[in-house]
Amino acid sequence: xxxxxxxxxxxxxxxxxxxxxxxxxxxxxxxxxxxxxxxxxxxxxxxxxxxxxxxxxxxxxxxxxxxxxxxxxxxxxxxxxxxxxxxxxxxxxxxxxxxxxxxxxxxxxxxxxxxxxxxxxxxxxxxxxxxxxxxxxxxxxxxxxxxxxxxxxxxxxxxxxxxxxxxxxxxxxxxxxxxxxxxx
Length: 184
What we know:
Elements: H1 4-19, E1 44-50, E2 59-63, E3 70-77, E4 85-88, E5 90-94, E6 98-106, E7 110-117, H2 125-131, E8 135-143, H3 148-153, H4 164-170, E9 179-182
Parallel strand pairs: 1-9
Antiparallel strand pairs: 1-8, 2-7, 3-4, 3-8, 5-6, 6-7
C-alpha cells in the first residue's frame, strides 16, 4: 500500500496539471512562414499616399517581391475617420446613380491600385477631393497558408480579412514599423 499511494498521488497531480488549460482560443500566428529561410519579407505593411489623377491613369503601381505563398491585402484609409481602414475592392455609390470602385491587381512583382466604374474625370471637385486626392492605401502582405492548423482546431474562421484590426491581431503585425511611401 505504501508503494501505491505515491503513484496514485503522482498520477493525480499529473492529470490535474494536464487538465488545467488557460489557452486563449483566438489564434495568433507568431511565425507562420513555411519557408524559414524567407523570414525577412513577410508579414509586411506599407502605406502609399497618392493622388489618383489623369496623369497616372487614376491608378498607382507599387513594386513588390512576392512569393507564391503570399497574399496581398489592400486597405483604404477612410478620410472621415483617422483610424478606419476599409478592405478593397470597395464600391462607393455617388449621386446620380453613379458608382466609383477602388480595386487592385497583383502579381509577383507589383500591386496596382486603381479606380473603376464612373469616369473619374466626371467627378465634381468635392467628390474628387474625397475619393481621388491624397488617398492613403495600406498594402499588407501575409502568408497564404498561415494558421491553417490553428484554424482547423477552431470552429471559427481563422481571420476576417475585411476587419483590419483583426488582421493586425491575428498576424501580430507591428503598426509602428509601417513604411510610408509618398507617390506623385
